[in-house]
Amino acid sequence: MTAYVRVAETQIPPGQMALLLFTARDELCAGIIEHCPDGTLERRVPNDPSPHDLVLVICRLMAQLPDDADVYVVIEPGAYWPEMFPDMKMFEEV
């Protein structure tokens, strides 16, 4: 079963992607961070971030992951994990 795992950017395993939660104009928004094979971290965020894109970004990320893969989540300062979302584990718990 998929688990949602909170990580720091530096904890994203090489070759993996993470959901990025951040705020724009005081609203929760989402993007994707990829830890590229060359060691760089690539951020993919919408040009005009909107809370309306949150579910779409999550779906795009999950479509690129194997069915049983954990979803890594990076939460920037000011952002949060919504209460109605599934429980999240911390990286150390996995």
The order of strands across the largest sheet is: 4-3-2-5-1-6
Q: Structural class, please?
A: mainly beta
The radius of gyration is 13 Å
Mean pLDDT, all residues: 91
Commentary on this structure:
The protein has 94 residues and is mainly β. The protein is built from one helix and six strands. A hairpin with a 5-residue loop joins strand 3 and strand 4 (41-44). The two termini are 13 Å apart.
Helix and strand topology:
Elements lengths: L3 E3 L10 E8 L2 E9 L5 E4 L9 H10 L7 E5 L12 E3 L4
Parallel strand pairs: 1-5, 1-6, 2-5
Antiparallel strand pairs: 2-3, 3-4
Which tags fit this structure?
11% helix; 1 helix; 6 strands; mainly beta; 94 residues; six-stranded mixed β-sheet
Summarize the structure.
The protein is mostly beta strands and 94 residues long. It has one helix at residues 54-63, and strands spanning 4-6, 17-24, 27-35, 41-44, 71-75, 88-90.
